[in-house]
Fold this protein.
Amino acid sequence: MEDVRQPQDEHAAAIAKVGAQEPPIQVVTSQATTSASGKPIDILELPAVKLTCEKDRLVIQEHAAATKKSRSCCSVTPPRRLAAGSVPFYNILWAYITPDRNHLRIDFAEETSPKKHELIVRQLEFPLPSTSLQASREREPLLSPPSIPPVSAATLDAFVARVLDLAYPAPIQRRKRAWVLVNPHAGPGGADKIFEKKVRPIFEAARMPLTVIRTTYSGEAVTLAQDLDISGYDIAVPCSGDGLPHEVFNGLSKRTDARTALSKLAVCHIPCGSGNAMSCNLYGTHRPSLAALAIVKGVPTKLDLCSVTLQDGERLTSFLSQAYGLIADLDITTEHLRWMGAARFTYGFLTLAIRKKTYPCDVAMKVEVGGKEEIKGHYARGVKGAESEVENGEESGSNDGKGEGEGEGEGMPGLKYGTVNDKLPEDWEVVPHEKLGSFYCGNMAYMAPDANFFSAALANDGLLDLITADGDISLWKNINLQLGVESGHFFDNPLVSYRKVSAFRLTPRYQDPNGVISIDGEARPFAPFQVEVHKGLGLTLSKRGVFEAPGPHGWDKVTTTERLRA
């Protein structure tokens, strides 16, 4: 990796230097991306190269004569041999003409190699006709394509604007103002180095203004988010495991303008911990540089959030999961093994499954969708709706009814079902569990890389995915259950009960001094608790407006009748 990082540092410094020289960036109207005839400027002919904007990529074609005799058609920084081909618009971070108008430069992210799954920032530089055309014709008159007419300044500007429009199509925002929180102690450690080497270069190449804060103790981000001037930022970017996003959501929830803050500031995630569930769901990766690019190109996505009430009167905000039983024990009792990374969960599971421990409790819930086929239909409708919204240039969840985040200047929404200390609603279903093994409720699909527990989860359907499984099963069946999580067959396993609920209350049957309840991976008192969902209360950025998990097997084959019934 050393041979990659050094050029990356040099290029970051070069971008910063060039950025100081670049003219102020102005908002370009759609008219500026078109020619006098009203057609978009999709082709730019330069003395040695032709640039073409195609559907999803910028195609670079060198003129034959220039390819044979000239090396001045373009340069790449950090240096590498430029293969004839193209750059996906998704990877293009910025494009501009230098202040002296001698060069067109394009900054983009490129994989270091297919196996490493890491990105490096590179820059293409193309000499412009104003300086290169006459010189090349005088020097090598036979190699300069005589058919290329002079390129006007308006055409150059319109082409650059066109490239940026295609690199940042609606509803993607350019130059997001980022409030970055780095937890140096997240997971195995090294979040500082990860951010500086793998994330900052991508953000800076995308011309994102950054404010970087390094947290010094657990819970600090709650206070920081509570006191933040949200008018100065578009996104919050915790660089950590899933604990720091949990703190940010809770800090925003404690504000007097909680609804406004949660609906305006998109909370994102750079994976630097052991679980990294948020990044896996939103960006389909636990690689920091790939997550950074996904944030740069992120689609605004409304996110359901949950209120969790505890017996002592505390109200928490949960964005990820609530667990009791084996899963909670696994999450919390392996905290001391963070140095193992994701392997800590495998080790913890095997240790606990051998004991065949059960966790008696009563679960009361407001079931909204029951039955696995009906859930598949509900999921199919949600995915299609979100994809349609994004294709129309809208944020995901914008047309799916009024969310609970639409209240200017207001605090958190009220609780429809009261708290855990209130009387249980009469229309809730109560299920006693004598031999419960795992109770797991998720707001997202992945709980860790390759751990797709909640394959039917949707970002803003106003529902939680609730699963239960007995604990008095054989070790082999328990292992098969966990293997099904990685293979994608967990949802269909007959040992798994799967429901979609809008609220629930869990009451342990007995007091266990060593008992654990997990909220977003954080330990809470072993006592009854209640959860209800607030539809679309939060905001985040995703790649496509939906979670990157593949969904339950056969969800896209559900019949039209089943979808309508769901």
Remarks:
- The first strand starts at residue 43 and ends at 45.
